[in-house]
């Protein structure tokens, strides 16, 4: 089975206090309409971080700052094996624009499972949730 090496950006609103993450809906291809974290294939000679910066510039028209690796997801789709390096990132310059995707949403902790994630991306949700702040819990804690 062919292996496809990709990177994904989990773009958050604030790296130190993550309350929202950016999700995109595919507008093309076999997985059209599925929700995913933006990114793409690593080209020869690129580091995963360089590929991520390039892909976000191409797909969303913004410059990002890549932070730490959250996880590496290995997932077997029917026709290929996906090897996906997933990084926290923030927008460093510009605004996120939908150049290739059908739709996008900023999701808070309670909304993480509100979209129809592609299977490999869904596997990442528990790790993302662990790194985010649930503003509802924070509000309850501050009133105690």
How does the overall form come out from the CA principal axes? Answer: globular
Number of strands: 7
State the share of residues found in helices, binned by percent: 10-25%
SSE string, helices as H and strands as E: EEEEHEEEHHH
Q: Can you tell me the CATH topology?
A: Nucleoside Triphosphate Pyrophosphohydrolase
Radius of gyration over C-alpha positions, nearest whole angstrom: 15 Å
Which sequence of strands runs across the widest sheet? 4-1-6-5
Number of domains: 1
> Class by helix and strand content?
alpha+beta
Low-confidence stretches: 138-144
Folded structure, characterized:
By secondary structure, the protein is of the alpha+beta class. It has one domain: Nucleoside Triphosphate Pyrophosphohydrolase (Alpha-Beta Complex). The chain is about 25% helix and about 40% strand. It contains four helices and seven strands. The protein has helices spanning about 50-60, 120, 125-130, 135-144; strands at about 5-10, 20-25, 35, 40, 65-75, 80-95, 100-110. The strands form two sheets. The chain has a four-stranded mixed beta sheet with strand order 4-1-6-5. A three-stranded antiparallel beta sheet has the order 3-2-7, with no helix packed on it. A hairpin with an 8-residue loop joins strand 2 and strand 3. It is globular, with a radius of gyration of 15 Å. The chain starts with a strand and ends with a helix. The model is unreliable at about 140-144 (pLDDT under 50).
